[in-house]
Write a structure and sequence with these properties.
398 residues; alpha+beta; Butyryl-Coa Dehydrogenase, subunit A, domain 1; Butyryl-CoA Dehydrogenase, subunit A, domain 2; Butyryl-CoA Dehydrogenase, subunit A, domain 3; four-stranded mixed β-sheet; four-stranded antiparallel β-sheet; 10 strands; globular; disordered N terminus; binds flavin-adenine dinucleotide
Length: 398
Amino acid sequence: MQDPSAAPRDDPVVPLGETFPDVRAGVRALCARFPGEYWRGMDRERTYPSDFVQALTEAGYLAALIPEAYGGSGLPVAAGVAILEEIHRSGCNGAACHAQMYTMGTMLRHGSKEQKQTWLPAIARGELRLQAFAVTEPGTGSDTTQLQTTAVRDGNEYVINGQKVWISRAEHSDLMILLARTTPVEETTSRRHGLSVFLVDMREAVGNGLTIRPIRTMINHATTELFFDDLRIPPDSLIGEEGEGFGYILDGMNAERILISGECIGDARYFIDKATAYAKEREVFGRPIGQNQGIQFPIARAYAQTETADLMVRKAAALFDAGLPCGPEANMAKMVAADAAWAAADTCLQTHGGFGFAEEYDIERKFRETRLYQIAPISTNLILAYLGQHVLGLPRSY
Ligand SMILES: Cc1cc2nc3c(=O)[nH]c(=O)nc-3n(C[C@H](O)[C@H](O)[C@H](O)COP(=O)(O)OP(=O)(O)OC[C@H]3O[C@@H](n4cnc5c(N)ncnc54)[C@H](O)[C@@H]3O)c2cc1C
């Protein structure tokens, strides 16, 4: 199991592996069909980029990590990183569909043979979307082990009650991975137990006990609140063993963090490309602004930060793909890549002066979008707490 709470260990040596140049070229060519104008329109109206998601699906990129036996390409997480990085470096946004890459892993690692046969080939063919992942709750936030949404066995069904928040793409997904409590907190023997993972068929659930309410946010992210009111789902919705769901979700979280790090690296490179080009071209006081060290050095620093972060992302992906524990690396990759993206975003905006604020330059949109990585899918503080407490052995704060 890829346990993020793994104890410190000797550092294994793994080759960083290939960089998937052909995959990258294919993604770049696809993204060229979705220029800034397309994303600006989506952002303005807060519209889900269905055409973009459809194009990625048809090209097979969203099934890249599904094993060939189930109709996917069977590529490693490192290839998923390359796909998401190129999407973001091209100025596009993978948030509309990235979840399928890591939520699928929960089914793959812990689902039954029947579940995998039923769902994975249809997802690989693009007939079904598994884009929604429901963990966060308004009352418990980052303290996932205390979540309160319940799944109670009633005869031949589970009955779900509770509430989730920030569940992205729920309106645009056929299937959703749900983490819910099957044992009351007071009856559990440890914080890790008592939660279970379910695959919810949204096509049947919405209007029959599940209500989705969109949340308008500072970015176009199709995120929502979910209300469960006696939603009844069949027993074969349960993935793996009852009560073990938190561990299954942790398994998937390393993949999620590594893949999202790829998006951060893509954003950072997008901003550095833009800032560099503008700093060479824009002349003020009779010379290119990039000749001034006050402009040049922050870009150079963001570049150094990005290249360094990329090494950690590649190391985390290589460990994951080798089946080795990678909790510390996945968390560090997410943190340093998000920081590099944020530094590059700030530098890019500063380099553009007033024009950085103009919608048509796309920088203000990407700036807003890349800010999310300091908070989601895990906030920077929680990564630091994990490193402090689980890797360095410092006293626990929670
Ligand atoms: C646009 C968007 C999309 C999202 N999509 C999804 C999704 O699809 N599915 C899903 O399940 N969730 C999703 N999330 C939720 C996201 O994972 C959480 O917002 C994130 O994990 C932080 O949890 P929280 O918002 O409850 O913050 P809280 O847990 O309330 O924390 C608030 C602040 O306090 C800090 N903090 C809390 N505890 C500590 C501590 N012990 N030490 C130091 N600092 C602490 C946090 O770092 C944070 O900065 C999304 C969020 C957003 C904004």
